Request: fold
Amino acid sequence: MAERVADVLWSMLAGAGVKRCYGIVGDALNPVIDGLRRNGQVEFIHVRHEEAGTFAAVAEAYLTNAPVAVCGTAGPGVMHLLNGLMDAQREGAPVIAIAGDVVSNLADTCTLEELNPYATFQVASLYTGRIVNPAQTRAVVQTAIRTALAEHGPTVIALPGDTAASEVPDDTYRAVVPNQPLLRPSDSDLQALAELIDGAGSVTIFGGDGCRDAHDEIVALAERLHAPVGYAFRGKQWLEWGNPNAVGMSGLLGWGGAYEAMHDCDLCLLLGTNFPFVDFYPRTPKKVQVDRSASIIGRRTDIDLGLVGDIKDTVTALLALVAQKPDRSHLDRALTTTERWRKRMGHYVTRGPELSPIRPEYLASTIDELASDDAAFCVDTGTACIWAARYITARRDRRIFGSFSWASMANAMPNALGIALAYPGRQVIALCGDGGLAMLMGELLTIAERQLPVKLVVLNNGGLEFVHIEMEEAGIEPFGTAFENPDFSKLADAIGLTGIRVEDPRAVRDAVTRLLSTPGPALLDAVVDPHALSLPPHITFGMAEGFSLSLAKQAINGNLDEVIETVKRNVSLA
Ligand SMILES: Cc1ncc(C[n+]2csc(CCOP(=O)(O)OP(=O)(O)O)c2C)c(N)n1
Reply:
């Protein structure tokens, strides 16, 4: 019997390296999933919410660099994919979405569950193809695969159920995956860059996710230039370890000497970074930006030289052209500032066992200390990002993943699910907000059902703490941020994970040890101090003014106790 569209789809996806498809079946998707079953090479992961399935796929695709499929069925099921696909687009993950579509003879009639895939995915997808005729199959599937892999992002294949079940023309259907070409500026552009570098007394490097494969080259360049190396959150895992010039992060989560080093230098090299916080870019130094993507060069800040190039390829070529700098005083200053920060950040760690409620800094640092050297950390959007940025130490084989560019809530637990499936045997730790965990809580059932050995830590602070801080910073009296939580450990126990709860700071170490040594899935419900504030490396007058104003408003409105607690618990860090 001739092959059907659904058969060709799965054999091409499997041929491109797809190992899993996350989603929920139904109506338009049924013939598509029937093809997956017949094919047998792609594992179907039934999730409880399509968005969670997409977050799992994003983490898997990003870390493995291989395409991962997700699926949702016509209308609402497809719509649930959207937030996750935005995340895939911003995190650069090759996720291929199969969007079930209404029966083709009812297309564009506003029928039940009909959704226009082009309009819906315009913001998220790098390519959207709709197969309404079986003869399109190879071209559409091939384009979706190659675009996702070559451009590092999501693509969508909209597929009506009747088309999926139709026979394809007799032809050859084979996935051809793209190569990874070398990409560097021309010799004359490199020469111009080398001249700028050689002419500068002091140089600072600031890197992002584009430094993924360029650790050794950047460390060699930094040593040659005595350049401090700062990083965005997405650069931390690639630049923090094995790097004697590492000076921490800039931005709202920042710490260390990075901010000052970027501002007090002659030349700042921005490598593979789309760092979004425009107020943190320096103005006085000359700035050079290198990135694979031409479109982001000069987007966030004014630059003196912008070069399209892969960071590894470009820095490798550059190393042959730049001279050793004689003076390391700029580097030494940045390292001293970084050391001072480390001491400051240690305050709540060394005093952690005595401070009640549990300080999140102490919890995060204990997890860091007890986690394995190749642990994969998933971090929820919220205060978890602050503690991970500052207290989770990057190592060569550790990974730190989150919705760092899209900043959606509720990513960490489903991210962990995807990584646990992709890397059996690896320690996977999710740092979850209580709001974040609750948002996609159904996925705990998927984790429990499959007994995936993920370790979930819930920062149980009884509210949307990150937003609480934001409001205080803006001079607004916090509102709408507090809520009641259940005992998450009991909930975990009830559904098949090992639940652990910790309220006493002296019990934190034992609780984390137990969490990490428990076989199978486990959840630590950590009741943490909701008043823990974090200070960015550079506080503007506006921020200080906002905090004072908000605290004054809270005091006037009768929340004096809250104000006193906030000040009392954080003043020693200032
Ligand atoms: C889907 C979504 N909704 C809202 C926001 C805005 N937001 C960013 S952080 C945050 C608070 C997260 O709260 P929680 O998960 O409890 O973590 P916490 O900050 O308390 O540690 C909110 C509401 C968002 N980023 N994503």
In short: Residues 380-384, 407-409, 433-436, 459, 461, 463-467 surround thiamine diphosphate (CB under 6 Å). The chain has 25 helices and 18 strands. The chain has a mean pLDDT of 94.
